[in-house]
Amino acid sequence: MDSKHLPLAEEALQNIPPHQRKNKIISVLKEKFDFQSAHLRTTNNKGDGILSKCFNYDAPNQVKKLDIYPFFKVIEAMNGARVTIDGKDLITVSTNNYLGLTHDARVIKSSQQALTDFGSGCTGSRFLNGTLTLHKTLEKELSEFIGQEDCIVMSTGYQANQGTIACLLGRQDIAFSDRENHSSIYEGCAVAPGKTVRYHHNDMDHLEHLLKKYSDVDGKLIITDSVFSMSGDTANLPGIVKLAKDYKANVMVDEAHGLGVMGNRGQGLTHYYNLEKEIDLYVGTFSKSLGSIGGFVGGNARITEYIRHKASAFIFTAALPPASVAGVTTALEILISEPERISRLQDNTAYIKKGFFDMGFQINNNQVPIVPIKIGDETLTLYFNKLLFESGIFAGVAVSPVVPPFHAMIRSSYTSCHTRKELDHILATFKKIGTDLGIIAQ
């Protein structure tokens, strides 16, 4: 790594003991800009009106001036595990295209045919004039795949969570939500008239404590991601299902990052634990393993019929466009008929996790292809990401408020498309930058 890329000259770094290098680099970086302080500073609204927070929020501009701003990169081309940004070919580890179906020729052909047959949009909501034969076919195939009586296809995964929770959680009801659940779950709980309590992440003792506290409430809904999108943790579904039975609660599972990933057939964590008949609501998305956009909720047909007629986010939103629906239907058929894609994904996940573990990074020992590289300081994390980009790797960054302050991470994820050569380059690059910055031992 050239000294021009480092906040300290190469020779100066060599004179600093490895265990002190990280803190020294952070102090030098923060002489230029302290991301945490700028990002978390309270805005003074006195006399400036509601928009003062917008004009006083300068953290992004300051990060851009230091050339370490990682967001809204413009992708000029993409295929499999490669993207082109600023004319530069990069390996992406910032993708949820787990099974590589986004660019599959069969998926694209189906989408093109739907454009010809139905046009570019549905011109209205599912409720009134936007339900096509394509939607009903996909709902039937999804129901069979996830082992539920019925499914509702919605326009986004975010909407599937928000709309479902908002219409089910009545004024006298309580939702029990894992603290690391996706924003769409938080949003649905916030919109609903009922009460929400958050239990500590994957902490069954705390969940049971809360269930006991509200044991006299009739309507109780436990909500959890199956795979948590930032940490890559998997939910303790057996523990949740047991507590739900003990305290007469219902269970809703968001399988956004579990579908296409968990289990030999990719049916999600619910099937991985053989609990698909023990949960009440199965929510999923099409923007990960199924390579498009959209979402769905599945369950007992009486429940889905209620949601169809009561979920405002579904009723008052334009239907998912024909091309997306047709593409997802074909992607689902490929997922079912080509289980080797899941096997390749699991092999790649095991290989990359072992590589990171051997370097000294703390890695979850599961088959989830989300691999967070925890760094802590946000400015250093942004700087680390810049060095990755210069070395040919396009990675994601998670900083507050996505993660708690001072818990920043490089959020990497992997697909069945990554080659062994690409994975080796990723590991070598992380090791070089990690040791140069004093994040891991040499």
Describe the structure.
- There is one protein chain.
- This protein has 442 residues and is an alpha/beta fold.
- It folds into 2 domains: 3-98 and 340-436, Aspartate Aminotransferase, domain 1 (Alpha-Beta Complex); 103-337, Type I PLP-dependent aspartate aminotransferase-like (Major domain) (Aspartate Aminotransferase, domain 2, 3-Layer(aba) Sandwich).
- The protein contains 18 helices and 14 strands.
- The protein has helices at 10-14, 18-32, 35-40, 52-56, 59-65, 105-118, 133-146, 157-168, 183-191, 204-213, 237-246, 269-272, 301-310, 312-315, 322-337, 340-359, 378-390, 420-436, and strands at residues 75-79, 82-85, 88-92, 150-154, 174-178, 195-199, 220-225, 250-254, 281-285, 295-299, 370-376, 393-394, 396-398, 408-413.
- The longest helix has 20 residues, at 340-359.
- The radius of gyration is 23 Å and the shape is globular.
- The mean pLDDT is 92.
Q: Would you report the number of β strands?
A: 14
**What would you call the structural class?**
alpha/beta
Secondary structure tally, helices: 18
Give the overall shape, derived from the CA principal axes: globular
Structure summarized in a few sentences:
The chain is an alpha/beta fold and 442 residues long. The protein is built from 18 helices and 14 strands.
Which terms summarize this structure?
442 residues, alpha/beta, Aspartate Aminotransferase, domain 1, Aspartate Aminotransferase, domain 2, 2 domains, seven-stranded mixed β-sheet, four-stranded mixed β-sheet, 14 strands, 43% helix, 15% strand
